[in-house]
Specification:
The complex is a heterodimer of chains A (175) and B (320).
Chain A lengths: L4 H19 L11 E4 L9 E4 H8 L3 H4 L13 H4 L21 H9 L11 H16 L5 H4 L4 H6 L16
Antiparallel strand pairs in A: 1-2
Chain B lengths: L5 H27 L8 E6 L8 H9 L35 E5 L7 E5 L8 H5 L5 E3 L5 E3 L9 H5 L6 E2 L9 E2 L16 H5 L5 E5 H14 L19 E4 L20 H32 L11 H4 L1 H6 L1
Parallel strand pairs in B: 1-9
Antiparallel strand pairs in B: 1-8, 2-3, 4-5, 6-7
Classes of the chains: A mainly alpha (175), B alpha+beta (320).
């Protein structure tokens, strides 16, 4: 039932190395990457070419997206209770904390075994991306359509029965 | 009839009645206390996170090899479809085991509600199925065996959520069709259902049901302004494996808030436990009363008192 942890972590570690290499020394405008290609989850949708530099300017504070991991502190709210003085972490990429597969048997087992874990309701990587981006974009009037950030691939068209794979006949009521 | 005394007969009748009643009550209590398998899995649907992208519908369609839809899964015009004179929104059927509907509660953003089988702890469909086609698995899924199903559609009437669909399109072998929690392909292998995995917003959280209840109440506690203080499915109808959190009052987003907290079978269990008593004990008991009464009326006839009278009817023999 439980997959060997080492196999599960291979893609996550790969991601951490990939993004960590480009973003581990992130400090606004100085060492942070100007461009990040978010392709870890790309299959039905193409990779996102993320203009990090532009978002650094918009967000102003690294903690807006990176919580406490860049050493900016996490404010005075709930996170600040523990993380107000937290130092910069070794990895700041989203995928270093947010799991690709948060509901795998191994992930659930690990969560159940760790009785002292506080962050039991942490979103997976896909949700972390979408919450972070959509949350701001809805408030600031940024793009919110699926295709605005990542165009659908042919595999995605087939999956959604759209585009070239759309139903041929005129839409008939299902009932 | 002459081989049994009135006292022994009455004592036996009363003992029989008491035994039937006690056994029935015990069974009813034991069955009524079933609150689901302790390790059963569930899904927490957080409607405040859902953006109505219909990816879950597409994932379900592919995972369950369902027929092509009438409209593409990225076509959001389906949210405007209504049926039965505008009184009903879309509901699951043989071609779609899950659908997402949009609601516009007063003074708020649109709320999207995913509809599928809620996988009750004590399912009404299972209770109503007289061929025992339904099973509540220890993983939490309510599954059915289409080879056993005779297509009577009792479960469709019994389900308080109007979930089971029917393959009306099949002329010769119509069976009931509904969400099975991806039991065969995923759940029993420890994997989340396809809809959970595809959801971009993690509006669907998969885990042990008892853990999800804690998580849900923690979310309400952390953000009281975001949620209505209720977890739909925690108590409703004896508890369901799929449970919902909402920003709008549940009655405004298509939920039946009038449902009872007891499982449907609780409505008939007490009655059913008396059926054996009524059918088996009462005829015997009243026949006995009748015969005794009739016999007493015949006491005056000497013919009724044979030579063995004193041996078998000692008490009455003493009277006569």
């Amino acid at each position: 039932m439980i997959k060997p942890m080492s196999f599960l972590y291979v893609p996550v570690i790969a991601l951490v190395v990939l993004l960590g290499a480009t973003a581990s020394t992130a400090a606004p405008s100085a060492d942070s990457p100007d461009q990040v290609t978010i392709d870890r989850l790309a299959s039905l949708f193409a990779a996102v070419s993320f203009d990090h530099a532009a978002h650094v300017e918009i967000a102003g504070d690294c903690a807006t997206c990176h919580h406490h991991t860049t050493g900016d502190g996490a404010g005075t709210g709930r996170c600040g209770r523990c993380h107000a003085q937290s130092p910069k972490t070794a990895e700041v990429a989203c995928g270093s904390c947010h799991q690709v597969d948060p509901f795998s048997a191994a992930a659930l087992e690990r969560k159940a075994d760790d009785r002292y874990q506080y962050h039991v309701d942490k979103p997976g990587l896909k949700a972390a991306y979408h919450w972070n981006c959509l949350g701001c974009h809805e408030q600031s009037g940024g793009p919110t359509g699926c295709g605005d950030c990542h165009p659908r691939t042919p595999a995605g068209d087939a999956f959604y029965r759209a585009g070239a794979y759309a139903p041929k006949t005129a839409a008939a009521p299902a009932h | 009839m002459s081989g049994i005394s009135r006292r022994r007969f009455l004592a036996a009748s009363l003992a029989g009645c008491a035994a039937t009643t006690l056994c029935g009550t015990q069974k009813a209590l034991a069955a009524g206390s079933f609150t689901g398998y302790p390790e059963g899995m569930g899904v927490l649907v957080d409607m405040t996170r859902c953006i109505g992208c219909r990816s879950c519908e597409a994932a379900c369609n592919r995972e369950q090899n369902l027929p092509a839809p009438a409209k593409p899964f990225d076509d959001l015009s389906v949210f405007d479809e209504t049926f039965h004179g505008g009184t009903q929104k879309r509901r699951p059927d043989e071609n779609a085991y899950t659908v997402v509907n949009r609601y516009e509660p007063p003074g708020g953003k649109p709320v999207y509600r995913k509809v599928q089988c809620n996988h009750c702890n004590e399912p009404a469909c299972l209770s109503s199925c007289f061929v025992n086609a339904y099973t509540k698995t220890q993983e939490g899924a309510v599954v059915y065996n289409s080879k056993i199903c005779v297509g009577c559609r009792n479960c469709m009437i019994a389900c308080p959520f109007n979930i089971p669909g029917y393959s009306y399109s099949s002329a010769f072998d119509p069976v009931v069709k509904k969400c099975i929690f991806c039991h065969e392909t995923r759940l029993k292998n420890g994997r989340p259902p396809a809809c959970v995995e595809i959801c971009p917003q993690q509006a669907l959280t998969f885990g042990k049901r008892r853990e999800l209840i804690k998580i849900a109440h923690q979310r309400i506690h952390n953000e009281p302004g975001r949620y209505v203080d209720h977890l739909y499915g925690e108590k409703e109808l004896g508890g369901t494996s799929w449970m919902y959190l909402s920003s709008a009052p549940f009655e405004q987003v298509g939920f039946d808030v009038a449902v009872q907290n007891e499982p449907i079978i609780a409505n008939v269990k007490d009655f059913l436990s008396t059926v054996p008593m009524v059918l088996a004990i009462w005829p015997a008991m009243f026949t006995g009363f009748h015969l005794l009464a009739k016999r007493r009326g015949g006491h005056g006839h000497d013919d009724d008192h044979g030579g063995d009278h004193a041996a078998s009817h000692g008490e009455e023999g003493g009277q006569s």
